[in-house]
Amino acid sequence: VIGPDVELALECHTRYNTESAIQIGKAVAPARPLWLEEPVPSDNLDAMAQVRRSIPVPVACGENIYTRYGFRPVIEKQAASVIQPDMSKAGGLLETRKIAAMAEIYHIPIAPHGTASPLAGMAYAHVCATVPNFLILEFGHLKRQQSAPLRTLLKNQPEYTEGRVHIPDTPGIGIEVNDDAIRDNLKPGFTWT
């Protein structure tokens, strides 16, 4: 129905038990989804690995796993086909690069969970541009029409072309903060220097 040029990723939000996840994975396999995301909670890596070995669909997880130490068993057990570190939860930009390097050794791609502001999203995109095993970055929240006050806080917005974000070659991450607009929108008691 959706055609061969669209990659469908299925989000399960950790809501299934192992057997149900396996049944779902087998049922959706003919659609050849990009992945089945967190079919079971990632706190039981043996169950996640069992689902991964039992279905012909890639399994993705990681948005609620913290630091490289949390990702180590996921990677070593190869419990996921794709890992999805959330850079704000996983320990930041450099820690995500370290997680990606660990995954690269096991030939596991990363698809970072990127629900963030335009400013953070561009920082995430810069990290992804330096990772050899980068697959895709969740960027949907950045393109959504933002409220006028939020748009004024930045001097420029990320640029998109056909589902891709442009990585600027200007200093920093390519997005400039509008200091005057931030000062005008501060809550009482806060300062901006």
**Spatial strand arrangement across the major sheet:** 1-2-3-4
Strand content: 5-15%
Cα end-to-end separation: 53 Å
Count of separate DSSP helical elements:
8
Average pLDDT level: 90
Portion in helices: 25-40%
Give the SSE string.
EHEHEHEHHHHEEH
The shape is elongated
Residue ranges: pLDDT <50 for 5 or more in a row? none
Could you describe the largest sheet, including whether it forms a barrel? 4 strands, parallel
| Total beta strand runs | 6
What is the CA-based Rg, rounded? 19 Å
Structural class: alpha/beta
Would you summarize the structure shown here?
The chain is of the alpha/beta class and 193 residues long.
Entry keywords:
193 residues; alpha/beta; four-stranded parallel sheet; two-stranded antiparallel ribbon; 8 helices
Describe the structure.
α1 (18-28) links the parallel β1 and β2 (35-37). Helix content is 37%, strand content 8%. With 193 residues, the chain is of the alpha/beta class. The protein has helices spanning 18-28, 45-54, 67-76, 93-105, 118-128, 140-143, 148-152, 179-185, and strands spanning 9-11, 35-37, 59-61, 82-83, 160-161, 164-165. The longest helix is centred in the middle third of the chain and has 13 residues, at 93-105. The protein contains eight helices and six strands; from the N terminus they run βαβαβαβααααββα. α1 packs parallel to α2 (45-54), α3 packs parallel to α4 and α4 runs parallel beside α5 (118-128). The strands form two sheets. It has a four-stranded parallel sheet with strand order 1-2-3-4, with helices on one face. Strands 5-6 form a two-stranded antiparallel ribbon.
